[in-house]
Structure formats: C-alpha cells, structure tokens
Design goal:
By secondary structure, the protein is of the alpha/beta class. Helix content is 33%, strand content 22%. The mean pLDDT is 95.
C-alpha cells in the first residue's frame, strides 16, 4: 500500500513575506507513515478544490489568530496578528474536505479554525477574557517538549481509544481557545480549568483537533505520535475503499 500524502497547511511570516514550516509537523507525519507536503498559501478556489481532491489527508497547523469576523465578532486589541489569506484558504479547504469526508488533524490554531469555521466562537485572548488559575499554564515558555498541565479525556471517546488514557499531561502554547463549541463538534478533552482541549466531528470518519502541540512532544511521549498515526490510518483506510 502506498504511503498517503498529507497536505500540511503553510505557516506565514508577515515580516519576511514568506511561507515556512516547523519541522515537527513534517517529521511527525513521516514518523507516522505519511508523506507530508506543505500546501501553497492561495485563495484560488479552483486550486483549493484540486488540493482537497488530490491529497489523502490534511494537517491544520498552528499560527496566526483566526479573524474574529469569522465568528461574528469585532477584532479586539487583545487579539493577535491575523492572516486573511490563511483564513480564506483554510475555511474553504475545510469545507471541501468535510464534504469529501477526508481525514483531518488540527493542532492549536487548527482546533480554533475548525470550531470557528463550523459556527463556534473563540476567546480572543484567554488572559483578558477568561483568566485562569495560576496553576494552569496555557502559554508556556520554551522548551515546548515538556508537559505543563493535565487534561481529562472523555471516557470511551475516540481520543480515549487512541491514547488509552483518561488523564494526561500536555504541553501548551496558545492565548486563544474555544468559547462556544460548534454544534457539529463534540468535546473530547478539557484542561483542569474547564477549557476545551480536544474535539472531533462525530458525523465524519476522522476530523479531530487538539489545542496542545503534539509535534513538539511526540518524540518524548509516544502517545502524542498516536494522533498522527490515527490520521495516517484513516487515510490508508480511505485508499482501500477507492
């Protein structure tokens, strides 16, 4: 069986006007048995439709904040940098991929983008709009390959099946988070202060997203690599049905 090709959503540096990629995303996909390919940052609708058809699965990466206009809010001063091209690309691609029922894994911005694109809302800044306790660290300092807070995983959920745990320590580097969960999503895990840390789409084969960064920590803890392996497994299963 051929290795599945995974379309990895590009990162964008506005100061350098450049596309770039963190090696952890690519290496984790490779370690799980896939072939990662960074996608172009384009808003061309024909190109996006073609990418949705061609690739076997998709990894929605971290990066800039999602434009609050996507979930019907005005951008507050506490909101960070946005990238309108990424918002258009990712929302359009997600819609097409969901229609095609292709596998998706979202990380950090990925979980936020998926929630917003499906009708949910976000906290534009957790410290401002949802202050947490001092013991919960949502925006850790480097190194990022160390766990900093615990999550509770919904028992008997898809994430519980993948990780084999009801409680787990994760790393954490984000200042936004899910406020109102989109109706098509179901929660899979939460932090000790009640913030949603993982979601999935029950009506699709595999659309799953996490708030933490498994691409930084998968080498230190194999359980995080299982998320990427699950993506690859669903891609391989889809190939068998073609």
């Amino acid at each position: 069986m051929k290795k599945p090709y995974i379309g990895v959503l590009p990162l964008y540096d506005s100061e350098k006007d450049s596309y770039w990629m963190l090696p952890g995303y690519m290496k984790a996909v490779e370690a799980a048995g896939g072939i990662p390919v960074m996608l172009p940052l384009t808003v061309d609708q024909d190109a996006i439709r073609s990418m949705a058809r061609v690739f076997d699965g998709f990894l929605f990466t971290g990066g800039q904040d999602v434009n609050p206009e996507m979930y019907g809010e005005k951008k507050e001063p506490c909101c960070g940098e946005i990238c309108e091209e990424r918002d258009v690309l990712e929302r359009t691609l997600l819609e097409r991929v969901i229609d095609l029922d292709k596998p998706v894994l979202g990380i950090c911005r990925g979980i936020q983008l998926i929630n917003a694109a499906l009708g949910g809302t976000l906290y534009q800044d957790l410290n401002t709009q949802r202050p947490s306790t001092a013991t919960i660290e949502h925006r850790q300092r480097p190194p990022y390959d160390r766990p900093v807070h615990r999550i509770t995983i919904v028992k008997d959920s898809p994430l519980h099946r993948i990780l084999g745990e009801e409680h787990m320590m994760v790393n954490s580097f984000h200042h936004q988070g899910i406020k109102r969960l989109a109706e098509r999503l179901a929660p899979l895990a939460s932090s000790e202060d009640g913030l949603i840390e993982a979601v999935h789409m029950p009506d699709r084969k595999f659309v799953l997203a996490v708030q933490w960064h498994p691409e930084y920590i998968y080498k230190a803890d194999d359980r995080h690599l299982r998320l990427f392996r699950e993506l690859i497994t669903h891609c391989s299963s889809s190939q068998l049905m073609v």
